[in-house]
Amino acid sequence: MEFNKKIVLSTLTAAMLSFGGCGSSSDTNDGDTTAPVVTLLGTTPVTVLQGDTYTDAGATANDNVDGAITPTTTSTIDTNTVGTYQYKWSATDKAGNTGFAVRTVNVATVLPTKETLTGDITADKTLTANKIWVI
Question: Cα 83 to chain center, whole Å?
């Protein structure tokens, strides 16, 4: 009977090793339930003029176990359409925890200012773009 116990123990040990050991591995973060902290670079909210190009200032991410992580985004801003947009950054650690940071981006239209011309309209009056002239 003693011989059979050794065979069973040897077989069990070999099986555990072939499936990655006894649960101890440097590639896993057992017990890590804390999401990475994603930090926006630059300010929020941001205002961009309609029709201009928007380039986000970026973000960084740090995890309590994995250290620095590269954040990613799939966000886009339609600068041709006036409105408020969310530019979302995320980072996922090796344990699968995901942290987020969101920047608010406002797309605004250019409104002309109002000026009044006084006196005679002559060649020396220079009209400026983006202004409504009341005569």
Answer: 19
State the Cα torsion 53-57-58-63 to the nearest 10°: -160
d(CA 69, CA 67): 6
Give the model's confidence band at 11: pLDDT under 50 very low, under 70 low, under 90 confident, else very high. Answer: very low
Mean pLDDT of the chain: 77
Q: What is the DSSP string of 59-124?
A: EEEEETTTEEE--B------TTS-EEEEEEEEEE-TTS-EEEEEEEEEEE--PPEEEE--S---TT
Tokens matching residue 5: 């116990």
Return d(Cα 87, Cα 103) in angstroms, integer.
5
Sign of the alpha-carbon dihedral angle for 66, 70, 74, 75: positive
* Helices and strands (H and E) in the chain: how many: 1, 8
